[in-house]
Amino acid sequence: MTDTTMQLLSQGTDPVKMPDFDILAEGKTLSGVAERLMSLSLTDNRGFEADQLTITLDDADGQLQLPPRGARLTVLIGWKGEPLTEKGTYIVDGALAEIAHEGPPDRLTVSARSADFRDEFNVKREVSWHDVTVERVVSAIAHRYGLKPQISEMLMDIEIDHADQTEESDMSFLTRMAEMLGAITTVKSGNLLFIMPGGGVNAQGQPLPSFAITRSSGDRHQFRIADREAYTGVRAYWLDLNYGKKKKVSVKRRKPPKPKKEKRAAAAKVIIWKARKAMCLCYARLIRTSRQQDAQRRQSGSNYNAEPHHSPSRWRVDVQNSTPKCMAR
C-alpha cells in the first residue's frame, strides 16, 4: 500500500474496495491465475449474440500451457471479502473462440464464447404455429435445447392465431416474434428469456433492487452531451393488433425554410431601387449645393467671374445594411 492509503486507513476512512475474481476450468479452480492475470474482459451482449470472455495472462517464465479446445471456463467476479457473482460459463470453441500467444514480453490471451450458444441454434426448420400462446411457443423451443423458459407474465397469454416458420432457425423466429411484441429474447445461464425490457422487474415479475451510483462509486467517470441538432427526426414502432402487423410513425425535425429564388430576386430589386433613390437624392443635393454657391458668388461682387466654377465631377453610392449613403468625390 502507498503512504496515502495507509494514512487514510489510520484516520478511520473506509478502505477502497478491491476487485476479486475466480476462474474455474471444468468445475475446478485454476491455481496461480491471480498472480499472472494482466486483464479480464467480459462482454454481455443482448439478443442472440454470444457473450464474450477475454483473459490475458503473463507467461514471462514460459510455464503456461495452452487450454484444450472445448475447455469450459466459469467466471466469478466481485469484491474481496464479499461473495462472488457467477457470470456464466464460456467455452473455448467455435468461430468466436481464439487462443493467442505473443511476446516479448510473453503473454497468453484466451477468448471464449458463452456456452449457452450452440451451433444447433442456427439449424433452419419448417414449423407452422397455429392457435397457440407465446408461453407454448417459447416453452417448446426451450425444451428442444434443454433450456428453462423464463417469460414475462404479461407476455404469457398473448395468443398467436397463425405464424409460419419457413426455412428459419428457432432463434431467428423468436427474435422476430419478440420484435413484434416489443420484447427481447436471449439465452443466459441455461435460461431462455422472453421478457419485456426496461420494466425494472425480473422474468418472474419481481422488482429488481435499486442502488445509487455517485461520482465516488468508481475511480473515473465520463460525461457526454450529444448534439440535439445532429438528429433529423425520430421513428417509433407499434403493433397493430387488428392486423397483426408492425407499423411505424416518423416525425422529422423542421428545418428553417431556405429563401426561394423569387424572394432573393425581390430583395435584389429592393436594393437596386434604394440605390437608385440614393443616387437621385445625391444628384439633387449636388445641384442644390452648386446653386447656393453660385448665389453666394453673385452676392460677393466682381470676383464672381474670376473664380472658376468647380462642381463635384462624380459620385458613388454605398449601400450598407440596406441604408444607402451618398459620398461625393
SSE map:
Layout: H1 3-10, E1 19-25, E2 28-29, H2 33-36, E3 37-43, E4 52-58, E5 72-79, E6 85-91, E7 98-102, E8 107-114, E9 124-133, H3 134-144, E10 148-151, H4 153-156, E11 159-169, H5 170-181, E12 184-188, E13 191-195, E14 233-240, E15 245-252, H6 261-300, E16 315-320, E17 323-328
Parallel strand pairs: 10-13
Antiparallel strand pairs: 1-2, 1-5, 3-4, 4-8, 5-6, 6-8, 7-8, 9-11, 12-13, 14-15, 16-17
Protein name: Gene late control D protein
Pfam families: Phage_GPD (PF05954)
InterPro entries: Phage_Baseplate_Hub
Verbal overview:
The chain is of the alpha+beta class and 329 residues long. It has three domains: 19-114, Baseplate protein-like domain - beta roll fold (Phage tail proteins - horseshoe like beta roll fold); 119-205 and 231-254, Phage tail protein beta-alpha-beta fold (3-Layer(bab) Sandwich); 263-295 and 316-329, no CATH class. 24% of the residues lie in helices and 35% in strands. It is built from six helices and 17 strands. Strands 1, 2, 3, 4, 5, 6, 7 and 8 form an eight-stranded antiparallel sheet that branches. The protein starts with a helix and ends with a strand. Residues 292-305, 319-329 have a biased composition (Polar residues). InterPro entries: Phage_Baseplate_Hub.
State the main characteristics.
single chain; 329 residues; alpha+beta; Phage tail proteins - horseshoe like beta roll fold; Phage tail protein beta-alpha-beta fold; 3 domains; eight-stranded antiparallel beta sheet; three-stranded mixed beta sheet; 17 strands; elongated
